[in-house]
């Protein structure tokens, strides 16, 4: 289990223990974190789980695949630290992960 901090665009923080093997998106849905919808259920087909990964964590994540990169074209306000949270699997190595939700995803 890893502790993941979700920070809404307003600054409200949600610190959640997410079980290993779930995605960061599934953790957000399980604990009703606003700003992460996951409309496609985690199939990497909608970009409604777009997050900004906090500095220092990008290099700890698996590389982005082509499908995720293509789906980010449908997200608003994409930045260098943008990822789809459905594509980030939680593991003990991600304990302490911090992600932020974009303002236009509410």
In short:
With 106 residues, this protein is of the alpha+beta class. The chain has one domain: Beta-grasp domain (Ubiquitin-like (UB roll), Roll), CATH 3.10.20.30.
Describe the structure.
The protein is of the alpha+beta class. The chain is 12% helix and 21% strand. It has a five-stranded mixed sheet. A hairpin with a 5-residue loop joins strand 1 and strand 2 (13-18).
Largest sheet descriptor: 5 strands, mixed
The helix content is: 10-25%
Return the CATH class: Alpha Beta
Side by side, the strands of the main sheet go 2-1-5-3-4
For the record, the CATH architecture stands as Roll
Please mark out the parts with pLDDT under 50 across 5 or more consecutive residues, or reply none: none
Q: What is the assigned CATH homologous superfamily?
A: Beta-grasp domain
Remind me, CATH topology? Ubiquitin-like (UB roll)
Mean model confidence by pLDDT: 95
Number of domains: 1
- Beta-strand level of the residues, as a percent range? 15-25%
H-E string: EEHEHEE
Radius of gyration: 12 Å
Structural class comes to alpha+beta
Helix count?
Answer: 2
